[in-house]
Amino acid sequence: MITQPEELHDVRLQVNGSVHEVRVPARRLLSDALRHDCGLTGTHVGCEHGVCGACTVLVDGRPVRSCLMFAVSAVESEITTVEGLTEDDGTLSPVQQAFSDCHGLQCGFCTPGFLTTITAGLRENPEPSEDEAREMIAGNLCRCTGYQNIVKSVLRAAEIEREIERESGEQVQ
Amino acid sequence: MKPAPFAYLRPSTLEEALAALADTQGAKVLAGGQSLVPLLSMRLAAPSTLVDINGLPDLDGIAADAAGVRIGALARHADVLASAEASASQPLIGMALSHVAHPTIRNRGTTVGSIVHADAAAEMPMVLRLLDGTVDVASVRGRRTVPAADLFAGPLESTLAHDEVAVEAFFPALAPGGGVAFSEVARRHGDYALVGVAALVDTEGGEVTRARIGFVSVSDVPTVVDVSDALDDPAGAALAELEPADDIHATAAYRAHLVKVLTPRVLADAIHHARERTGA
Amino acid sequence: MTTKMFGAKVPRVEDQRFLRGQGRYVDDLLTDDPRLLHSAVLRSPHAHARILDIDVSDVLDVEGVVAVWTWDDLTGPMAEPLPLLIPHPTLTHGRTQYALAKGEVNYVGEAIAFVVAVDRYVAEDAVSRIRVDYEYLEPVVGIPAARAARTAVHPDVPDNVGARMTQENGDARAAIAAAPHTLSLDLDIERSACTPMEGRGTVARWDPDTSRLTVWSSTQTSTGVRGCVAAKLGLDLAKVDVITPDVGGGFGVKVVHPWPEELLVPLASMTLGRPVKFTEDRREHFISSAHERAQEHHVEVGFDDDGRVLGLDVEFWHDHGAYTPYGLIVPIITSTQLLGPYKPQSYRVTFESVYTNTVIVTPYRGAGRPQGCFVMERTMDAIAAYLGKDRTEVRSANFIQPDEFPYEHGLVFQDGRELTYDSGDYPASLAKLKELVGWDEFEDFRAEMAAQGRRVGIGLACYVEGTGVGPYEGAHVHIETSGKVKASIGLTTQGQGHQTAFAQIVADTLGVRFEDVEVVTGDTRKMPYSVGTFASRAAVMSGSAVHLAALRAKEKALRIAAEALEAAEDDLEIADGVVSVKGTDASIDLGTVAVLSNPLRYAFDEASKAATQFRVGDPGKPPVAEGDEPGLEGKDFYSPPRSTFANGMHAVIVETDPDTAEITILKYAVVHDCGHLINPMIVEGQIHGGVAQGVGGALYERMAYDESGQLLNASFMDFLMPYVTEVPTTIDIDHLETPSPLNPLGIKGAGEAGVIPSAAVFAAAIEDAEGFPITAMPISPSELFALRLEHADLPAEALSEETR
């Protein structure tokens, strides 16, 4: 039996403000398209069944499992990956900085999914309580940190964002 | 864990979608994909074609009024959960949705998709069944309204034909004297429930006139038991109709025990809720 | 003055790349290489079967498939069984699998065929087209079935027993017979697994131009992989480079090598002349990597009125799965580390390591210690209950005292050396733990909660952990002419912050700025002599080695600087990368010293002009003195006589729901003694992670095999790894720093500690809450409910009812 080559789809993915034109089969998971076709390997794949959260990216600003979406379905969306969280000048975002401050990561494999999830979470709730911080990360697995310092990182990120806001407020005055 | 090949269609109108489903053997509808994609990746399902309805217009509506809540096929769990109007009309929707997986899954997963996935371990099929809601279904043959009581055929099996698309679910509003409550025990926060229990009561002057209990994970299909005549032992009445089973997470005996623990609690909560609403 | 880095909470340098999404894990490599091929493995769907025929004829017709291998295609050493890495005289019936199954399969997941294709999707399509005819054999699943031996896993292994081993110190059986009190206990632990977030993975690239093979693998031992790849593929060691890129967690499973794919990927790359990648998926990780923990134990103990153990006789059965590539390390560790901080007057231990038709068992963080700790601590609790004594009192009566170190147990440890504890202060640790958890105030708390209808319990568990096993680790420190320092260690890193911790040591030892030190790990091109990262050995072994290597570099720097500054070496000091004569302005920076260390013919920049032959040296002497080498470098190895022994104690307060039997953690306390801390932030992170993994092992995770040998929960959906919602909201940690006398920095390992006492401490607390014995872990609410029913008629339940 000889199988036919798979049909390929021209897909225009908008990732971190750039457009990536890729040709992929329909079954190409968004996670694989980001990693292998767009070369954005910061998004990690930990389970491919939507439980671990390592592959979480922002789709139109909302955290979504990229292993549970097909690239062909992502055409009309603006996608943000961990690479897109860093400021244009290379400065770490408040969430990224907080993880460094609080030792919120060890092996770093699950980290991108936490960073994207928390980035969106803090937009929705900029001043989370400790319980809310825990709830914010409750769908992401980490095997290294025991989550203790990730919870601290969420609170610290909120604090950094407040500091930045205060400073920019002072500058305006 | 990569899906087998499939053809892909992304229609831009419902008519196109329905025609595609009618024309294609082995096609499946892709909405949120949060249950479907893992099945594809594990190659437990291999449809010939996926008809992606995410490009269809006007299917993401969430409309609530005194009659109830209408939820479109592309409305994501997260949006339904965030809808104050929906929760005001039928509070059980929000109570149950907060137990559906984790927020990230709720951002993409659709409530209607979850219902027609017909998982007896999922919250929303049971809620629709308990509330006697309906699902509007479209195909090239036209539209029909399926009552929840006729929707669930077996484990992960709805009564929808292969060419039908569920376009909207309707959850009746909570009646003025009504009360609802929900509780579940899961191994981990966000997991499928070992046992989930919801209650819907009607009251008049603070007295219960009707009481029904819905159960998650204790039978093959979403199951509702009328306990109006068994208010002193609702769990006993329920267990007569449930079929708790063993799995790797819990024994049947433990599930039955949880039914006994949760049912009276949830019923009491629902009665309390009704009395609170009516000031009785 | 350079700030002292050792002991400081220095933020990790590796975080920068991880946080930006710029880490390079194995699946990230060569993604932009259009020649890269991908692979997938056909794995046995049966636990025990003979392979009658494999038909791959449909596979090569699949568009995009490049090649397929079965055992029949393998030749030479590749067709031989995989190595038995750690042979032991008592492992009389060791067996290992083939890279691809030869005629039989012995667990669900065993590799049968290897497909290479243009991408993983197509490779999986191809795998699904391979047809295998099997003759089913009855599988052996679980320790009772293995012991019953109705069926043999391997026909030539009698009674399914791979090894029997006994160690004895004194006459334990006689001591028990003569003891005033005796108890018997049966204690079981189930299977679990490391489950790092990143599975296994290997990339190989054969370069025909240079005839060199480069292998990147997500491993805990790059030198181990290198040795195996060279031997199996018939290559000179010098032709093989193994690089361990960033690793997404290991916890033990990645120290096993070579995995079939670690050989098949390089073989495919050499055969096809193209780079090839294998990335294990999650289901594969569950069924074809390694598990651990499953053991059943029987304890006989004799003790006096104070609870002092006069004789301890432990017999246990270790389920090592279908093969024994990692030897007997896990049961040997259980049998020796079971003793913890105690000194029973006599001890006898014997174990059988048995075959089952399940995934192989190799060390998982803790490596046999959690089981040993469970056995010993449950025994201590049983003695206390029997005598009606406080559980801490019985432990105190059995502690090795601070003045008894070094303490010889009269046993042989996992490294073949005497089991001799180097240091510790167990009474001080226990005092700290009681304070931290509120041990003495707990009965008040219990009464307070009981008044609210709530049921709580407290438990504690103590352990001692042999860390930093040999044989050795090495380090190379190179000071460049820029003054930047490059340090290379051979062992690999998978999240422990080695690039930070070892840079701290180098900065302190050399007197350079931390920012100027860069550490490379796990690259055989930089440091070909190394063992690997396991057994909480990295800090002790590589930490000591990097310190010694930096000292060598410093010695040389001082010698050259002394000459340049015309001063005595003793009068020099190094701070912030500058060598100066104490009390004067005379100084020279280390970069210039590096320039001077390497006499040059050719100048290539301003700095190197200073080192050309017309500028430096005495024209009457050889430019490089006899016995000296050019360059400002230091290399050294650390090889200790034996392991160092860290210790710790955990306590937990749990609440058990009287109705639903759900178990909630109210308080978790850790007292930890790993000697001097290099970076307390990193150590605490290791403890947090260990505790969470321990919570998983005690309350959530298990490998659910059915009777046919199918793993029913091979997904993160059903293997219940804790989320943040399942771990304690806080973990209270207190440190004791009892230095090890065995290494120059006084350090002990910390990587595994957090997970060791979990099963023991949770069992103790749940038992305390419920009033009946907990003898098997993990425990779920469903199981606790069943135990309640079982004990409902016993007086113990009445006791627990009173406490409600």
Architecture blueprint of SSEs:
The complex is a heterotrimer of chains A (173), B (280) and C (804).
Chain A: E1 8-15, E2 18-25, H1 30-37, E3 56-59, E4 62-65, E5 78-80, H2 94-102, H3 111-124, H4 130-136, H5 148-172
Parallel strand pairs in A: 1-5
Antiparallel strand pairs in A: 1-2, 3-4, 3-5
Chain B: E1 7-9, H1 14-23, E2 27-30, H2 36-41, E3 49-52, E4 62-64, E5 68-72, H3 77-82, H4 84-89, H5 91-97, H6 103-108, H7 111-117, H8 123-130, E6 134-139, E7 142-147, E8 152-154, E9 157-158, E10 165-172, E11 178-186, E12 193-204, E13 207-216, E14 223-226, H9 234-239, H10 252-278
Parallel strand pairs in B: 1-3, 2-3
Antiparallel strand pairs in B: 4-5, 5-10, 6-7, 6-10, 8-9, 11-12, 12-13, 13-14
Chain C: H1 15-19, E1 37-43, E2 49-55, E3 65-69, E4 104-105, E5 111-117, H2 120-127, E6 131-136, H3 143-148, E7 161-169, H4 172-178, E8 181-189, E9 201-207, E10 212-217, H5 222-233, E11 240-243, H6 260-272, E12 276-279, H7 282-288, E13 295-303, E14 309-319, H8 329-337, E15 347-354, H9 369-387, H10 391-398, E16 407-412, E17 418-421, H11 426-437, H12 442-451, E18 455-467, E19 473-479, E20 485-489, H13 498-510, E21 517-521, H14 538-565, E22 572-575, E23 578-581, E24 587-589, H15 590-596, H16 606-609, E25 633-638, E26 644-656, E27 663-673, H17 680-700, E28 732-736, H18 758-770, E29 776-777, H19 781-790, H20 795-803
Parallel strand pairs in C: 1-12, 8-29, 10-11, 14-15, 20-21, 27-28
Antiparallel strand pairs in C: 1-5, 2-4, 2-6, 3-5, 7-15, 8-13, 9-10, 9-12, 13-14, 16-17, 18-26, 19-20, 19-25, 22-23, 23-24, 26-27
EC number (chain C): 1.2.7.4
Pfam families (chain C): Ald_Xan_dh_C (PF01315), MoCoBD_1 (PF02738), MoCoBD_2 (PF20256)
Keywords (chain C): Molybdenum, Oxidoreductase
Which terms summarize this structure?
A: 173 residues, Ubiquitin-like (UB roll), five-stranded mixed β-sheet, 36% helix, globular, C: 804 residues, alpha+beta, Aldehyde Oxidoreductase, domain 3, Aldehyde Oxidoreductase, domain 4, 3 domains, 20 helices, 29 strands, 24% strand
Structure description:
- Chain A has 173 residues and is an alpha+beta fold.
- Chain A folds into 2 domains: 77 residues, Beta-grasp domain (Ubiquitin-like (UB roll)), CATH 3.10.20.30; 74 residues, [2Fe-2S]-binding domain (DNA polymerase, domain 1, Orthogonal Bundle), CATH 1.10.150.
- Helices cover 36% and strands 16% of the residues of chain A.
- Chain A contains 5 helices and 5 strands; from the N terminus they run ββαβββαααα.
- Chain A has a 5-stranded mixed β-sheet, sandwiched between helices.
- In chain A, helix 2 packs across helix 5.
- Chain A starts with 7 loop residues before the first strand and ends with a helix.
- With 280 residues, chain B is α+β, with helices and mostly antiparallel strands.
- Chain B has 3 domains: 49 residues, Uridine Diphospho-n-acetylenolpyruvylglucosamine Reductase, domain 2; 111 residues, 2-Layer Sandwich (Uridine Diphospho-n-acetylenolpyruvylglucosamine Reductase, domain 3); 97 residues, CO dehydrogenase flavoprotein, C-terminal domain (Enolase-like, domain 1, 2-Layer Sandwich).
- A 5-stranded antiparallel β-sheet of chain B has the order 4-5-10-6-7. A 4-stranded antiparallel β-sheet of chain B has the order 11-12-13-14.
- In chain B, helix 7 crosses helix 8.
- The longest helix of chain B has 27 residues.
- The radius of gyration of chain B is 19 Å and the shape is globular.
- Chain C is an alpha+beta fold.
- Chain C contains 20 helices and 29 strands.
- A 7-stranded mixed β-sheet of chain C has the order 3-5-1-12-9-10-11. Chain C has a 6-stranded mixed β-sheet with strand order 7-15-14-13-8-29, sandwiched between helices. A 4-stranded mixed β-sheet of chain C has the order 18-26-27-28, sandwiched between helices.
- In chain C, a hairpin with a 5-residue loop joins strand 13 and strand 14.
- In chain C, helix 17 packs across helix 18.
- The longest helix of chain C has 28 residues.
- The C terminus of chain C is likely disordered.
- Chain A: Its EC number is 1.2.7.4.
- Chain A: It comes from Nocardioides cavernae.
- Chain A: Keywords: 2Fe-2S, Iron, Iron-sulfur, Metal-binding, Oxidoreductase.
